[in-house]
Amino acid sequence: MLRRTVGVSRFEEWLSGDVPHPVKFPYLRSFYENSEFALKTVGELLVNGSVHLCAAGETKSKVVNPLSVVNLPKGRLVLDAGYINAFSKAHPFNYLDDGLTANQDFALCLWLIVAIVRFLALLGAIFSLPKCQFWPAQTGDWLGFVVDTQAEQFRVSAAKMAKDAVKLFLERLDDSNGRRWFPRQIRIEAASDASDFRFGGSLYIAGSPPFHLAGSLIETEVQQSSTACEMVGCLRILQQAVQHHRPLLSGAALLLVGDNQGAVAAVNSFRSSAPDLNAVLQEIFKLCSEADFDVLAQWKPRVELAEHDALSLVPDASDCGLNPKVFADVISLFGRPDVDMFASDTWHVAGQFVTPRYMRGCLAVDALSTDWRTLVRQGETAWIFPPVRAIPSVLQSTRISERTRF
């Protein structure tokens, strides 16, 4: 504001020296937009002696600070003394804001009030009379609490408790014990199925072709119950739905269709006595909370989910790896790899991995159509364990990389 008021050429000069230079700042727009409130407040300050008018014969003010109004939501008149503060030194001090006094009987309490008010007034204190209680009382409001001397209690006022109760009711109006009174609109339908080692599913959105996906279960998931495997498949489908259609899901609902009655019941009730199911439900709840969408589950007989059942039964020949003992022997000789070039989101031996199609957490997609020089930096090691059918193409890509940099 100083730069706009005095100009760029005099800006540095007006900041130099030990005392402020003469300047008159214009009032901010908010002052004029709230002129009625601003003028009323200035009048109140004149009455209580906080400010006074400069008469024609008095010394002209050296610095006129800008005034503005803020609404938080109650209006406040703001005096911006930033320019003067640039020349001031900080002097920390404490001042009285809210006070409460008491005594044994009415007469002593009244005398004490008069004494305190007169003493503070002599020290220069200014009282906001409408907010003060100068007549002794055994019950009164103070800092949002009710002070009840007869009951010897400090308690929250009934009005504030009612206000908080109404606020909570309005915030949770569409919920009833965690369930919505008014269901959200279903914008995506997902179907899933799981076998002993894989899961498969599809996402259906009005006006778009189905999006099919499948994946493998990790070793710990395979050892769980069939219902838990179905739940893991549901979680993977939901994760893909959020990954690809988060804006569409926000504030809406997803209908999950499956043929396992236990999994459907667990999703709809969001509880289960089985620890493995509860662990998956917690992941689903976290996903729904972060993306702000609801999940509804519906059971259908397996005959109506034949396509998804087939996706979960067909093994992925490319989703394979070495025996853990053999792999441990290999990395003991060559070290742990930095990038797994042929991997999936469930099976990978490095933190960075390339998948045949987009999967959660992948570095890139389709290693054979990607320049390996952009994936493996100088000094890093790539783990190359491709499907047998891809070995000729892998050798060709390796030769290209060797001629250029490896």
Over the alpha carbons, how many angstroms does the gyration radius reach?
Answer: 36 Å
The fraction of residues in strands falls at 15-25%
Q: Note the total helix count.
A: 14
Helix content: 25-40%
What's the total number of strands? 18
Mean of pLDDT? 81
What top-tier CATH class of the largest domain fits best? Answer: Alpha Beta
Content-based structural category: alpha/beta
Q: What is the distance, rounded to the nearest whole angstrom, between the alpha carbons of the first and last residues?
A: 59 Å
CATH topology of the largest domain: Nucleotidyltransferase, domain 5
Keywords: Membrane, Transmembrane, Transmembrane helix
InterPro entries: DNA/RNA_pol_sf, Hepadnavirus_pol/RT
